Amino acid sequence: MTEIPASVLEVHRRLKEAGFKAYLVGGCVRDRVLGKQPKDFDLATSARPEEVQRVFKKVIPTGIQHGTVTVIASGVHVEVTTFRTEGDYVDGRRPEKVEFHSDVEADLSRRDFTINAMAEDPITGERVDPFGGEADLKRHLVRCVRDPLERFGEDGLRCLRAVRFATVLAFDIEPATEAAIAPRLPVFRKVAMERVRDELLKIIVSPHVARGLELLTRVGLTREIFGFEQLDAAAIARTPPQVELRLAVLFRSAGECQVDRLKLPSAQTQRVRELFARRPPAERDDVTLRRWLSEVGLDLAGDLCRLDAAELDLGRFEKAPLSTKDLALDGAEIMKTLQTSPGPVVGKASRFLLDQVLQRPELNTPQELRALLLNWRP
Ligand code: ATP
Ligand code: MG
Fold this sequence. Notes:
Layout: H1 6-17, E1 22-25, H2 27-33, E2 42-45, H3 49-55, E3 59-63, E4 68-73, E5 76-82, E6 84-86, E7 98-100, H4 104-109, E8 119-120, E9 127-128, H5 133-138, E10 141-142, H6 148-154, H7 157-169, E11 172-173, H8 175-179, H9 185-188, H10 193-204, H11 209-219, H12 221-226, H13 233-238, H14 243-254, H15 266-277, H16 286-296, H17 298-312, H18 331-338, H19 344-359, H20 366-374
Parallel strand pairs: 2-5, 10-11
Antiparallel strand pairs: 1-2, 1-8, 3-4, 4-5, 6-7, 8-9
Adenosine-5'-triphosphate binds at residues 26-27, 39, 111-112, 116-117, 155, 157-158.
């Protein structure tokens, strides 16, 4: 069972004592149902922002016009948001004004996916789940709350968030939800790159990045975000889960460095550019290496070697014949073919055969190897 911080419980208790409704909502409820420790805990309440301010002495008006204040309880910051829905969406961007409500269901109905649209009473454990979020968690499905075409039309970022949650949780996107992404790509185009980037980077550093990139491409988002579609998802997945390293491999595998589009902090952009453009030297003698290190520095050099390793993909040789033990002919069969008895020639013959199959692995069949032996002069 996951633990709820004492500060969150205290804020919840005081809101209830003051006569308001209060629930854990969103990602923390999802994570708790999954048995994962949430990163942060969001509380939603029927109390209006001014009422929250009255209940607690210390509050920070974080996003007060959207109903969010930060309460400081026992020195810890806890975000409290008034139950709300969003006014009309203009142009697929976030709406300017919000409407406050006294029921949690209204608040849940504005959320993006069923798995993110649950509330929980942290004391009684009572759960409010009007859209079947728990069932979708069990079925490993990312499904829009209500009509997907409408929801993606309100906020184009949700298209990318669907892929983000499917990636991070290793879930599928429910078919109607997935089918609604392509028709809403024009709305996605209007979303600020800063919001896109934050979601994208969660996909990029995920252990399931290969699945994420495959989904992104399937729904048309790879092209929207990067301007290309061909990339080596397996190479990216082999790269250590660090933003700059994985982006560099992504752009290398696409053959073009489109990092500027992502509007990353300039130091990060610069790093990706360098990782994209440079390679370790072919020669590995000390003099060459010292000159290289003096040029690029130890830190960048280390990352460039890591990228080299990721791109090498040694894993694909796992099934290839790599030692004499892997040959399709064993010692006895070699002797039989050569009509000889045990002696140094047998070892010599198997080393010859190994060298042949290292050059052409498809030759590793008894017939081919026998033919090679019959033409071989020891
Ligand atoms: P994480 O653990 O990765 O932070 P999260 O579920 O907390 O996941 P956030 O992006 O922090 O995700 O959003 C918090 C909650 O707010 C979500 O669970 C969802 O209910 C709601 N939400 C966030 N962004 C949107 C959006 N664009 N449209 C609708 N609801 C949203
Ligand atoms: Mg969150």
